[in-house]
């Protein structure tokens, strides 16, 4: 069996019960990492997911239902990881929510929730895992930002602000750990066909009275020159690279995987 790059390591992926987070969790498990899942969903489905992942990849899989907008619950999750696995070696901050409205119409509570989950939660997880990573002189923090951490779109002020902030947090933490074996980087996906994006596709199909397939093409044509969605598996492969020895001097980057979106 080929040597797996993350054997013996433990990865926490927030927001990993579906979509990008689950794709990344699967890819890390395939490299031998034990995985701590986090997110919302049907309890029976999540329990089955744990069993399936553990069986498929021969790793330990656990789950914690911390609400990423609540610091005390994040602290409980990191303590749980310490008890169960001895701690976290790879932290992937992926949890995120979205709301679309112009600034003057943006509901204040939605703004607060988006900043809390998309930005502040990554500060809390990072501050809680860094002491152990420093002590071990090895760790990887990967923040799932977005092309919206690099450029803006109308109607997405909170999301854009949070993702720009997440890249700022990434850079600052990367500088603080620059002389250690800990690296901190961000991945900035373009459109990925997650349940979140599928909702946008469905809405567009209904609004323009077009097929789902045509709605997908129209959505991509707006922003993503390749005309193809980024896949969770591709993002997972980039996360695995960032965890590897080959990437140990990759520090504080915001790496866009976006089919050319930001090149325009």
Automatic annotation (TrEMBL):
It is an enzyme of class 1 (oxidoreductase). InterPro entries: 3-OHbutyrate_DH, NAD(P)-bd_dom_sf, Sc_DH/Rdtase_CS, SDR, SDR_fam. PROSITE patterns: ADH_SHORT. GO terms for biological process: monocarboxylic acid metabolic process. This is 3-hydroxybutyrate dehydrogenase. It comes from the Bacteria. Its EC number is 1.1.1.30. GO terms for molecular function: 3-hydroxybutyrate dehydrogenase activity. Belongs to the short-chain dehydrogenases/reductases (SDR) family. The lineage of its organism: Bacteria, Pseudomonadati, Pseudomonadota, Betaproteobacteria, Burkholderiales. Keywords: Oxidoreductase.
């Amino acid at each position: 069996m080929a040597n797996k790059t993350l054997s013996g390591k433990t990865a926490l992926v927030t927001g990993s019960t579906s979509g990008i987070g689950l794709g990344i969790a699967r890819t890390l498990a395939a490299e031998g990492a034990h995985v701590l899942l986090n997110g919302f969903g049907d309890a029976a489905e999540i329990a089955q997911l744990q069993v399936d992942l553990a069986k498929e990849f021969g790793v330990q899989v656990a789950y914690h239902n911390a609400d990423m907008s609540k610091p005390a619950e994040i602290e409980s999750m990191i303590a749980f990881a310490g008890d169960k696995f001895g701690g976290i070696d790879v932290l992937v901050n992926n949890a995120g929510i979205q709301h679309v409205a112009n600034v003057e119409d943006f509901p204040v509570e939605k703004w607060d929730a988006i900043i809390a989950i998309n930005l502040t939660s990554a500060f809390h997880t990072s501050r809680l895992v860094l002491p152990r990573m420093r002590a071990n002189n090895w760790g990887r923090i990967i923040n799932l930002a977005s092309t919206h951490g690099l450029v803006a779109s109308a109607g997405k002020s909170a999301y854009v602000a949070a993702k720009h902030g997440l890249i700022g947090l990434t850079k600052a933490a990367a500088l603080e750990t620059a002389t250690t074996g800990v690296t901190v980087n961000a991945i900035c996906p373009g459109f990925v066909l997650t349940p979140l994006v599928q909702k946008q596709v469905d809405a567009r199909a209904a609004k323009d009275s077009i097929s789902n397939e045509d709605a997908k093409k129209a959505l991509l044509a707006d922003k993503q020159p390749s005309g193809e969605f980024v896949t969770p598996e591709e993002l997972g492969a980039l996360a695995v690279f960032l965890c590897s020895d080959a990437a140990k001097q990759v520090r504080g980057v915001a790496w866009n995987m976006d089919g050319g979106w930001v090149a325009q």
